[in-house]
Amino acid sequence: MPEMTPAGAGIGLRGQHIPEVIQGLPEVPWFEILADNHLAEGGLIPRQLATVRSSYPVTFHCVGMSIAGVDPLDMAYLEKIRKLVENFEPAWISDHLCFTQYGGHQYHDLLPFPYTEQSLQHIGERVMKIQDFLDRPLVIENVSTYVQYRESTMTEAEFLKALSDRTGSGILLDINNAYVNEINHGIDAREFIQSLPADKIREIHLAGYEDRGEYLIDAHNNRVSNAVWDLYSFFVQQCGERPTLIEWDNNIPSFDVLIQEAQYADRIVSSITDLSVLAQEVVR
Amino acid sequence: MKNHQTCQKLFSEMLDLKSIEEGFAAEKFSAILKENIRLPGLVAMDIYRNNSIGARQGALQHIYPVIEKILGERCFNMMANDFVVASPSLDSDLNNYGRAFPDFLVDQVTQHTAFTDFIYLPDLARLEWSYHAAYYAPDDEPMYDLSLVSLSPDNEKSVSLVRSRALSSLSTAYPVFDIWQSHQGNEPVKEVAALTEEDYLLVYRQQRHPEIERINRDEWIILQELVVPQGIEHLVDCVLEKGADVQHVLPGMSEKGWVRIMED
User: Fold this and answer.
1) CB B208: neighbour CB atoms within 10 A?
2) CB A96 within 8 A of CB A123
3) Per-residue pLDDT tens over the stretch B173-230
4) In the 8-state DSSP scheme, what is residue B92?
5) Nearest to A111 among B16, B32, B48 (CB)
6) What are the DSSP calls for A91-111, one per residue?
7) What phi and psi, each to the nearest 5 degrees, are found at residue B144?
8) Which residue of A has its CA nearest to B165?
9) DSSP code of B39?
């Protein structure tokens, strides 16, 4: 299996597009695999993934580690992830800064917690255990939230930075989530982006939200909005290029639409890079 | 100050409520949230509840598409919602959620007169679950390379028989296989005749895709016995008691890969 590092704008690969990708091998620089959709240990799913992996760099994105949870780590789940990692060698593995289970109940959603020193201590220990088990650093994503806790003593950006400092984990910056939080809670998205340690940001996520009038839902059911593209430009200007991913999970369109979105992300990066080169030449 | 665990406990209690308006927990939970005029606490919790319930409902829709076609989207969603609210998910892998839905349907069709004509739904749901399970099942381990026909009496004592891991078998008094077939694709649904005798069905995986096949009673009895691995002698004794003709049937089952030989 060739070792291939993601670069440019990739696509979150979903089940309905896999046959098309395997048959046509479209020009996509890399794919993010939603690992939770590939936990089957036999049958068609692992074979399809092997075929995809033989032609593309991949990363794994998870939703079930419950990084911030207080239940014991789900070692059976982590073992499945470890096997997937051994078999398919992703460039990195990511999951979210949230909890997904409590009291043995799985909620299959990304649930928020208060950002405190106590939770930082607890989550830091869990991240270290997961990283030891998987034998590699995690990349941890900021989440969109619909509530904020009174007792939080730090911002999500401060929390992510501190967690990264303590554990060596990387950061997956979801710019759509930052924008959803700006509208829902008034958290300035540019300030949030600038507060993150740029050198720790390994990957960018871009997705579409659902506008409910008073607030936004992080529904991944739309094209990336203009406001989020603007924030992406802002990030690239501030921090430079990073592997960037188009995520679309509901009302999934044809694969061509996803390619268009990825190409748009690439054009933004090119235009900013070209401008920057031009500016340097003018200065000289 | 609430600690990390208490906040998660309150949050999960809110998600497990049958209704978000159930006062006491909601009040307690609202007290730990920052005020947000744009997105009040209870509205926000409803988003999380809908996400959590929706994920599990989506899993049921994925696993039970024929049940949904028969009931219609609205009725299926109501039923799925009742099931989801009463049935927490206990596994990170959402593919494992919904195994108990057929049992839930038993209660529904026996308790509600509206379902008098749908008495077959639980068996149809079992068939759909088996189909789903066959798709996601682990591959079989490489097995002892010996055919049943060539087993000597000495060998027989040192091997066990086991079912393929992707295989399940069921018996039904209803024509659920025909009903299932008539709801594949977009063709108009054909009339299905009632059964005159018990139907025995096998769900297995061939070329990485699930298949459903009718089997005879003898094959069904053997497969039921092999839910756990059995020594050949023990298997023969058990199935003979039930009147199954193991000698003639077992070699064919082995050739098809339904039954495999495992070294003890």
Assistant:
1) 15
2) no
3) 999 999 999 999 877 777 787 888 999 999 999 888 999 999 999 999 999 999 998 8
4) S
5) B48
6) S-EEEESSEEEETTEEEEEEE
7) -55, 120
8) A42
9) S
Spatial separation of the C-alpha atoms in residues A185 and A179, rounded to whole Å? 10
Cβ separation B15–A107 shorter than 8 A = yes
Judge whether B207 is closer than 8 Å to chain A, CB to CB: no
Task: For residue A63, give the nearest of A84, A36, A32 by alpha carbon.
Answer: A36
Chain A positions in Cβ-Cβ contact with residue B32 (cut-off 8 Å): 149-151
Instruction: Report how far residue A263's alpha carbon sits from residue B217's, in angstroms, rounded to the nearest whole number.
Output: 59
Which range, of A68-72, A248-252, B257-261, averages the lowest pLDDT?
A: B257-261
B50 Cβ under 8 Å from any chain A Cβ = no
Facing A108 at nearest CB: one of B45, B56, B137: B56
CA-wise closest residue to B18 among B65, B73, B85? B85
- Tell whether B211 is within 8 A of chain A (Cβ): no
Taking the C-alpha atoms of residue B97 and residue B262, their distance in angstroms, rounded to an integer, is 30
Which residue reads 């009742």 in tokens? B82
Q: Tell me the helices (H) and strands (E) count for chain A, helix number first.
A: 9, 12
Residues B129-148 pLDDT 10s: 999 999 999 998 766 555 66
